[in-house]
Specification:
SHOCT domain-containing protein; mainly alpha; single chain
Length: 82
């Protein structure tokens, strides 16, 4: 093989290596996105996940007897209005 054949083969190997690295990077990004917690995906968005979490906390406090019915309703209303 001449010099041009060797350079062509080297260039081909370089391109295949770059393609393999790109595929691995895409796979890593997809795995990270698939395994992220749902709350991470909602940060900076509408805030709906945080609202549900706050409402859940009020419900739990009411269930434990820490809030009376009036306070429970007031806090839920405040959360839903804001």
């Amino acid at each position: 093989m001449g010099m041009m054949g060797m350079m062509g083969m080297g260039l081909g190997m370089l391109l295949w290596t770059a393609l393999l690295i790109a595929l691995i990077a895409v796979a890593v990004v997809l795995v990270v996105r698939a395994t992220r917690r749902p709350t991470d995906a909602h940060r900076g968005g509408s805030g709906r996940r945080e609202d549900s979490s706050a409402e859940d906390e009020v419900r739990m406090r009411y269930a434990r007897g820490e809030l009376d019915t009036d306070e429970f309703r007031r806090r839920l209303q405040d959360l839903r209005e804001n």
